[in-house]
Design brief:
Elements: E1 15-18, H1 21-26, E2 29-34, H2 45-59, E3 64-69, H3 74-85, E4 89-95, H4 98-101, H5 105-112, E5 116-120, H6 122-130, H7 136-139, E6 146-147, H8 155-171, E7 176-181, H9 185-193, E8 199-204, H10 211-223, E9 231-234, H11 247-258, H12 269-281, E10 290-295, H13 301-304
Parallel strand pairs: 2-10, 3-4, 3-6, 4-5, 7-8, 7-10, 8-9
Antiparallel strand pairs: 1-2
Helix pairs in contact: 2-3, 2-8, 3-5, 8-9, 8-10, 9-10, 11-12
Length: about 300
């Protein structure tokens, strides 16, 4: 990774069949797009969502990045690594008091890459998230740095994700796409980039109470893109909220890992995998459906360790 070559070419698409008894019984075909293999730290959708921000930093001669997220944020891990590779500074507003997270492995890895972490109370964090990305209160602290919104979801990232979705549509045969959703940016880009008549399902990995749909509608309007396919929001598998898990989900993830099929974890990717399996068993999909499940990454040691 360096400023001259970073993100100049799209990573290859790696597809892998996923076979389970419930899929055979439902007479459906499930294929996994292994976007988790794009890069050890800038995995999956993070590659595409961060691309315009890293390009902006290089083109505008900015001297770093500033963003926000939870202490285990996959987005912050990816951005911290990219900033380090580009020899730029990263400043992150981290939700919660410092004593709650200062020793967790994700935070230690970000610090290893030189990121500066700034604790923010949960109340202040919610208020910050609600502000526009152009709000003076936030931008005042960025100075000559690029502001990257929560999760990298921004109108400017929709084009990059939509281009990814078009590339997938050109290279694979499917009628249904399923992916996990935490901040609406990826599913919004897919909604704009997929071919018409594709069924798009977003498995909510947090308890949004309709918030992700509102966020998605705003992202598409603000980006100037129109949705080519509607989004079906699936809110039955968040297991209580982001970073929340359950015995049923952990058991399922261990089973998939034991089969040596895919590395998944119970915070993010595993919820989408579990949703596909459970919905197939309930007859949710039409027979002969060709389903593409997007593995968006999050495969880091600390997430997998949650399986025990």
């Amino acid at each position: 990774m360096n400023p001259e070559t970073i993100f100049q070419t799209n990573p290859p698409l790696i597809f892998q069949e996923w076979n389970r008894p419930e899929f055979s019984k439902a007479r459906i075909q499930v294929t996994v797009l292994r976007a988790d293999l794009i890069h050890p730290w800038v995995q999956g959708n993070k590659w595409y969502k961060l691309k315009p921000f890293l390009e902006k930093a290089a083109m505008d001669n900015r001297d770093g990045f500033i963003s926000m997220g939870g202490p285990y944020s996959n987005h912050l891990i990816a951005l911290a690594f990219a900033a380090s590779e580009l020899k730029q500074k990263a400043y992150f507003f981290i939700r919660g008091e410092e004593h709650e997270w200062k020793e967790n492995p994700a935070v230690l890895k970000m610090k290893e890459w030189g990121a500066v972490l700034l604790p923010v109370s949960r109340t202040a964090y919610r208020e910050m998230h609600q502000k526009s990305e152009n709000d003076n209160t936030v931008m005042a602290v960025t100075e000559n740095k690029v502001w990257v919104p929560l999760g990298g979801s921004s109108p400017v990232s929709i084009r990059s994700v939509a281009d990814w979705a078009r590339q997938i549509s050109d290279e694979a045969m499917f009628d249904t796409v399923i992916l996990p959703a935490a901040s609406a940016g990826t599913v919004s880009g897919f909604s704009a980039g997929l071919k018409k008549d594709t069924r798009l399902l977003a498995v909510e990995v947090l308890k949004s109470n309709g918030g992700l749909k509102v966020e998605s509608d705003w992202l598409l309007r603000a980006s100037g893109f129109r949705s080519s396919v509607p989004i079906e929001w699936i809110d039955m598998y968040h297991e209580g909220g982001y970073a929340r898990t359950s015995d049923r989900l952990k058991s399922f993830c261990r089973e998939v890992l034991d089969d040596r099929k895919f590395p998944i974890e119970p915070i993010y990717s595993g919820k989408a995998f579990f949703a596909v399996s459970d919905l197939a068993g309930k007859g949710y999909f039409k027979e002969e459906s060709r389903i593409l499940l997007i593995h968006t990454g999050g495969i880091f040691p600390w997430n997998s360790a949650l399986l025990g």
